[in-house]
Amino acid sequence: MHWPPLSPISPLVISILVPSCIASASQDEKSSPQHLPNGDSVCDCFLSNGTQPSYFSNHMFFDFRNLTKDAGVPALITNETLATIAPPTSEYFSDDEWTSVWQLQGWSNSEGKGKGLSGAAAVLMVNSPSNVYIQKNSDSDAASDTYMTLRTQRLPKFQTAAAFQTKTSDYQFVSLRMLARTTGGPGAVTAMFTYRDGTATSDVQEADFEVLTRGPRERVQLTNQPSFDSNGQVNPNATRNVTLPDDTIWSQWAVYRLDWTSQSSVWYVDGQQLANITFQVPQEASGINFNAWSDGGSWSGNMTVYDQANLQIQWIEMIYNTSAPTTPTRRRGPSRLWSRDAGPRGELLRRRDSSSRTCKVVCSIDDVAEAGVATMLWNSTATRMAGADAPNGMAWAWALLVGSLVWLVAV
């Protein structure tokens, strides 16, 4: 028995199948969701909720909330060359748990000596590993001991910036989340996005979740790039500037979520949908990126000298598929190919693809009590169906039941 290709579920199929499915499930067959104390080691795949419910093979969770041994704000490096080659700011960013997935960025937007700056930049921007660090949470009502900070600051001679990205660019559809906020002065951009480079701007494939600190604190920018047409005009089909829900402002902690599927890019904050863009959805395998930057151009704006802005993140979580098979680093049982790597200062949970791609145990990271811990939705090897009494039970039940039917059809 093989699981069919992992892809979004058609809303039309859902609307046709749900009534009969719900009617056929008796109360005796329902049970509460089973939180998995050891992460998701029993899960074969993951199902997201929302506008485009989708199946994913892999799960990762990076937790920056309890890294006190690594906390410390590094000094700014004011030499542009030294900034690009700066070492990691703590052991956390040198450990395998981090380096096996992410790369800190050290480069500038200079086209070379005497050749000016790339794009429409007005200020030299230098990405430095020294601007990604673990910081003590000094909030009066702090819900964590620490968080990760991406710092950008305008210096007299250049803009120092921060960026990191996945080591590989084989992520092909993802539900990406972070608990984050943006702080600081106007003229910067903080972002979470997928990215695939192209030989020309028109070839770039990118889905963006951006905060522009020059703009209103209650608004964010959501885009399937490129956002400009061949005449340099903003394409309204590609981008939205939207208001955050429930009077939220981007300097407050909130869960930012981007669901990239083959059919659309959908953006959420604290579980509420902000936009669904089906125009020029990225299709090719891509990398995952986070950054805080400014180049003095018309998009970011120009920061006042010595002003600073920060993207602060408590955790990052994603469920995703890849365009290439992966190799497990640890086996848990004779047929499940999984790894759970728990570092001394943080945690990485990764589900590895198996060659058979079977999916008998379906889990979710939505509507859970604890970030990073999956909830079992159903187990096709058991006689009882789990999850019908989960939070938002009946609203979520259709996804569980339709998934069961999809699995039965595939048998």
UniProtKB/TrEMBL annotation:
GO biological process: carbohydrate metabolic process
Signal peptide limits: 1-23
InterPro entries reported for this sequence: Beta-glucanase-like, ConA-like_dom_sf
Domain GH16: 62-324
Keywords recorded for this protein, A-Z: Signal
Gene Ontology molecular function, alphabetical: hydrolase activity, hydrolyzing O-glycosyl compounds
Pfam families according to UniProt: Glyco_hydro_16 (PF00722)
CDD domains with a match to the protein in the record: Glyco_hydrolase_16
Domain of life according to the entry: Eukaryota
Name of the protein this chain belongs to: GH16 domain-containing protein
Organism: Trichoderma harzianum
